[in-house]
Amino acid sequence: MAHEAGITLDLPHSPPRQAAAANAHGLVPGIVWFRDAAAFAPLVAGLEGSPFQSRHWLAAWLDVFGAPEIEPFLLTLADPDGTTLLALPLVRRRDRGLAVIEVPDLGVTDYAAPLLRRDRLADLPGPAALWRLLSRALPPADLLRLNRMPPVVAGMANPLHAHPAARRHRLSGWRLALPAEYPAYLAALGKSHRENLGKFRRRFERVEGAEIAVLRDIPAACAALADLDRMQAARVREMGRDYHLDQPRIAAFYRRLVETGIESGETLMCRLGIPGETLALNYAVRAGDQLVYLRLTNAFGEWTRYSLGTIVTDQAIREALALGVTTFDFAMGDYEYKRRFGAVIAPLHDLVLPLSAKGLPAAALWHLRDRIAKSGFIRRLTGRSALPAHPA
Known about the structure:
single chain; alpha+beta; Aminopeptidase; 2 domains
């Protein structure tokens, strides 16, 4: 049974099971239900993936968004010896009368991606065959939604990104491959940006009481997060746009990531300030050598000439290198500063498939709306520019 808006719903629940039907690859799909992220970790030992599918992220998500009507489970693919080659954290929940399977999201997770075993990628079937195999183990549901799948996961090709039914998302990710040391990173930048990094930093350091800091303890980081919320909200609303990151559960989620990850370096925050005033802040999450840069804010007005956002982003890259990060992911959004820092575009794909006759109309409607939204003719009629032509 599950509950939504005070209404009791019947949600068919399958016990942990495996779809053991023979297949040409000898691989066995399965699912494991879990409520506690501590039980999740042993199931994915030896697999690598995005910070959005890490134990750190999932534990915080379950702490804040977990509810009886949301059923988390792990979709797995193993070889005949029981070695897991792929695992995809998912949830089943009710949405507009449908039982929907999707990644744990509810407005906070940028990417949908599997965890993969690096030395066994060649053993995975092609995207369509892989999904047919995995789908044998799915619990009863009406609709699959895998939104914003990145092309690469921890340096490995995402096998679901190339599914023939996947469609390009309207936004893209931006990825920066980092060398082992900061001087090598600097040398790869354009001359103008490289010179500006040093100039802006020296200019700020001459300000009385100027401080550039990496936050490493929970109380200081939580206080800085409150500043980040306040400064971001003011800036976004000043631009006439809606701001949602201060909604209670979303704000609690970001705070939980700080409480459980700032000391271990799984959550990264850098701060620029002077005595009594915060001038710039950022927020990132890390899993192994993969980091995603999620939030950035800085003061404007008299501080514009210091390019505080440039300085605090550069500080995050320095700290990422010290932590052994090899991929600095600037996340979604086509902002010019990402190009200046050397990031390259990473097209994101959405995969929406019906899982029952009841889900067919919803999937068909989603695909129709997607085609209309991307139609050059429709966009011209409505006065919108054409979507950029990104590689598939």
